[in-house]
Write a structure and sequence with these properties.
five-stranded mixed β-sheet, YaeB-like fold, alpha+beta, about 80 residues, globular
């Protein structure tokens, strides 16, 4: 399967990913890989008032990303409970 989008992970998002529990990290990495194929999957939400920003929620965690031409920039991964 071809990946029409290149995924970049911001340093802060990368650090948050590294600190996640291993099971959650695996799920998040699968989601990030899937965004390279389809950055607007069913269920993705465009963030109100934020131009070009989308979010995906998995368990208690949220992934915020921006789509630019052929690139997906992962900006932030955080715990919704905080």
């Amino acid at each position: 399967m071809t990946k029409p989008y290149h995924v970049k992970v911001a340093p802060a998002a990368y650090q948050h990913l590294q600190n996640l529990p291993i099971k959650t990290k695996r799920v998040m990495i699968k989601l990030i890989e899937a965004l390279a194929v389809n950055p607007r999957p069913p269920g993705s939400r465009k963030m109100d008032g934020m131009t070009g920003l989308y979010c995906e929620s998995i368990q208690h965690h949220r992934l915020i990303y921006k789509i630019e031409e052929h690139e997906v920039l992962i900006l932030l991964v955080f715990d919704n409970r905080l």
